[in-house]
Amino acid sequence: MNPGDRVRVDRADRTYEGVLLPSSTDDHLVVKLEGGYNVGVDRAEANVEVLAEDVYEIDGTDATGADEDDAGDEGASEIEFDDDLPTISLISTGGTIASTVDYRTGAVTAQFDAEDVLRAVPDLAGRANYRGRVVANILSENMEPPIWQDLARAVREEIDAGADGVVVMHGTDTMQYSASALAFMLETPVPIVFTGSQRSADRPSSDNVMNAVSAVEAAKSDCAEVLVCMHASESDDVCALHRGTRVRKNHTSRRDAFETVGAEPLGTVDYETEAVEFQGDYQQRGKADLELRDDLESDVELLKFTPGMDPAFLDVVEGSEGLIIEGTGLGHVHTDLIPRIEDLIDDGTTVVMTSQCLEGRVCDRVYDTGRDLLEAGVIEAGDTLPGTAKVKLMWALEHSEDVEEAMGTSLAGEIQERSVPWE
C-alpha cells in the first residue's frame, strides 16, 4: 500500500475508511476520512485492506512519506514534470497550512516543507509542475524583516529559474505584512500568491485544500501582482484574490477572515469550475521586468493613538528612523502630543500619519489639530493601511530620495484614487 490508496483500517472495534496519507513515523498509519478528519492508527494493532490503488497520485513515496528508492533520504519526494503544464514554485514559510499532526502527542506542529504540503494536498496533482522550497519554518507571529528579504530573494530566484508563478505558504496572522513587503521589494512578470489556512488539516472545516488549490490556479493566471488568496465566504465555493497592499485580516478564526479594505477584492477563484476572474485593473503577466530592490530600514515603529495615551510612549521611539501613527478619524492625536512629535521630526525621525478607521483617507487640512501636525512636519499617507504604511516606510527610507512624495504616491496599489463605500 502507498499514500494515495483508498484503504479500510480495522482496529479493535473501530473501522476507518479513507485515503492513506504519508505518516511522520513508521509506527503509525494516517488516514484522511470522508468527513475531512485525519486519524492516526498504530500499525501493529491495525488490519489494513486496500480498496483502490492510486486514488490520488503521490509519486515516489511509501506510507511514511520517504522515497521508496532512497529510504535513507528522509522526506525526499519525486515530482514528475509534464511539458504541457506550467511550473509553479511552492515556497513554505510555515503556518497552519504547512502544519501536520503528530499522532504521538496530538499536537499540531508547523513542520511540513513545501513538498510535504504537495503530498498532503493531493488535489494539487495534475494542475502544474511544482518546485518546493523552504525559506522559513516559523509561526507567522515570529516573522521579521530579514525573513521578508530572504523570501523576496527566493521568489526572485524561482522566477529567474523559470517559474510561471509562485505560491507562498504563510501563516495568516502576519500575512498582510509579508505580502506588502514583497509588493514593494519586487517587480514581477508573474503572479506571486500568498495563501494560508485558518484551520489545520485534521479538521473537517479546514480551508487548506481549497485555499492551496485556488492559489495555484491564481498563480497560473494573467495577474502579475502580489496577491493574497483566501476563502471569500464561510462556504467552500469561492476564494477571493486580494491585492497584497490592500488586504487585512479582520477576524481571528473565520475562514473568510481576510478582506480588501475600501474596495472589492481584485479577483476570485471558483473552486468548482477553477475559473479565475478579475474585476479591476491589474498588471498583466509579462509586462514588467523582474527586479528586486530588497533593502529595508528596520528601525520603523507603528504606534496607535488612544485617548489618554501617556506621552512617554513617544519617548520609546525617540531616535527611530521612522514612525507610523494610527491617528483618529482624519489623522489626529491629542494636541498636547504635537510638540513632542515635532521634536522627533526635528531630530530626524520621519513621522507618517494614517487612520485607525477601517476605511477613508487621512486629511489633516480640515481641523486645527491636523493643520498643526502638518506644520510640525507630519507626512500624510492617504488611505494606506497602517500595517502597509509601516512596510512601505521601511522600503521608502532606503529607496526614495523624497520620502514624503513616495508615501503620498501609490507604488503598489496601496493608495486608492478615491475612498468611497463599495458595499
UniProtKB/TrEMBL annotation:
Q: Which PROSITE patterns does the record associate with it?
A: ASN_GLN_ASE_1 (PS00144), ASN_GLN_ASE_2 (PS00917), ASN_GLN_ASE_3 (PS51732)
Residue ranges constituting the Asparaginase/glutaminase C-terminal domain according to the UniProt record: 299-405
- All residue ranges annotated as the GatD N-terminal domain in the record: 1-51
- Annotated L-asparaginase N-terminal domain ranges read 88-279
Entry's InterPro entries? Answer: AsnA_fam (IPR006033), Asp/glu_Ase-like_sf (IPR036152), Asparaginase/glutaminase-like (IPR006034), Asparaginase/glutaminase_AS1 (IPR020827), Asparaginase/glutaminase_AS2 (IPR027475), Asparaginase_C (IPR040919), GatD (IPR011878), GatD_N (IPR040918)
Q: What UniProt keywords are attached to this protein's entry? A: ATP-binding, Ligase, Nucleotide-binding, Protein biosynthesis
Output the Gene Ontology terms for molecular function. Answer: asparaginase activity; ATP binding; glutaminyl-tRNA synthase (glutamine-hydrolyzing) activity
Which residues are named in the active-site annotation?
A: T96, T172, D173, K249
Catalytic activity as recorded in UniProt: L-glutamyl-tRNA(Gln) + L-glutamine + ATP + H2O = L-glutaminyl-tRNA(Gln) + L-glutamate + ADP + phosphate + H(+)
Q: CDD domains given for it?
A: GatD
- SUPFAM superfamilies referenced in this protein's UniProt entry, alphabetically: GatD N-terminal domain-like (SSF141300), Glutaminase/Asparaginase (SSF53774)
Q: Which Gene3D superfamilies match?
A: 2.30.30.520, 3.40.50.40, L-asparaginase, N-terminal domain
Keyword Ligase assigned to the entry: answer is yes
- Reported EC number(s) for this entry are 6.3.5.-
Highest rank taxon of the organism: Archaea
GO biological process entries: amino acid metabolic process; regulation of translational fidelity; translation
Give the NCBIfam families listed for this entry.
asnASE_I, gatD_arch, PRK04183.1
- Describe the function of this protein: Allows the formation of correctly charged Gln-tRNA(Gln) through the transamidation of misacylated Glu-tRNA(Gln) in organisms which lack glutaminyl-tRNA synthetase. The reaction takes place in the presence of glutamine and ATP through an activated gamma-phospho-Glu-tRNA(Gln). The GatDE system is specific for glutamate and does not act on aspartate.
Q: Which PANTHER family match?
A: 60 KDA LYSOPHOSPHOLIPASE, L-ASPARAGINASE
- Oligomer and partners: Heterodimer of GatD and GatE.
Similarity-based family? Belongs to the asparaginase 1 family. GatD subfamily.
Q: What is this protein called?
A: Glutamyl-tRNA(Gln) amidotransferase subunit D
Which organism's genome codes for this protein?
Haloterrigena alkaliphila
